[in-house]
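tool=predict chain=A
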Amino acid sequence: MKTLLWMLSILALLMAAAASWARFGNLKLPAETTVAEVPSTTVKRGDIVVTVTAKGELQGGNSELLTAPAAGGGDVAITTLRAAGDLVNAGEVVAQLDTTEQEFRMREAEADLAEAEQNVAQAEAEAIAKEEETRYQLLQAQADVQIAELDLRKNELLPAMVQKQNTLALSESRDRLRQIERDMGSRQATAAAGVAMQKAVLEKAKLKADTARQNIDQLTLKAKSSGYVALMSNSDGNWMWGTLLPAYKVGDIVRAGVAIAQIPDLKNWEASTRIGELDRGHLAEGQAAQLSVVALPGRVFKGKVKNIGGTQGPPWDRRFECKIALEDPAQEMRPGMSARVTITTQKLTNVLWIPSQALFDSDGRTFVYLSTDKGFVPKDVKLIRRSEAQVVIEGLEKGQTVALANPDQGSKKKGPAAGGAASAFPGGGKTT
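tool=predict ok
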């Protein structure tokens, strides 16, 4: 009995499998393919304004740079530094550099100065004492001559031997007087030279002490005008290529001549931007520009191109610095605010133009995909002027339709194709 039940169960499963095979085997799954719609636009004729847009940053024009002086004799550390955006008045300290070495030199110079002053005083006292001694010797010699002359007048009354002694005494006294008179000038010159030498040492010590004090003063960077502090980027150190350079902070080591901070001139605002190298030939000083500041929404400021800098950067991202001078700054502006700059480079009238994404180039060709009865086909055109959003061309007619994307890359198959899910079964995907 149990064997019969097992056989009936197996037979039922086989019949169910056969029914499923019959149904799915005769199922017809169409391999439907459709081509995605290609976005397109029409060629237009009219007047266009060619512009260059870029992101920039506000800064004061004619900024006062605060640089590390050469007085430190080498690299020095920053001990105090005002924060970026702090408002400072003229004469206030913005940054203080380490003065430890200069203070040691100043104390050493002051000690040398004090010693030199004592040496000068001692030399002058010795010179005065020697001069007094020489004068006393001179007076003594003059007195000896006078006494010898008086003794010589008594010779008529004295023996010949005494007369001879008086004569020799007078001659000796006169020789001694002449010698003292000759030595007196040289002694005065020697004393004066000694004093002068000590005074020279004194002046040298004074200069050394004054230099040390000036160096200490120079290591204190003060603002010459009122404004907001803008910290400079620290380009020293082992920074990786492409990393954002940090601003200077307390403890950083700076080299002589390196700018640490700047105080922008808030009466002359400007925006600094970095623009792609391809647009350099379109820009010139004096061109009109408009700025919209992110922090001041709804307001547009006028300006002009002030300066165009050199091109820098890696080969795949060459850019140049462009500064825009603002003509109508606002009191709410602060250094470092982000702005979007739009520079008007040229105005073209009655020209054919299409969106920039509708123009393609390959192997030295400049072409568009023109709509025809056979679909979109490549059509060579002549490029007159290019901007970020529009291109001016020749070789087409107004109203013609061009593709905004490559039609060859827009075709995609939709739905399951033959050999899909139905092919999992015998005869799947085939029409019977």
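The two ends are 43 Å apart (CA to CA). The first helix runs from residue 2 to 25.
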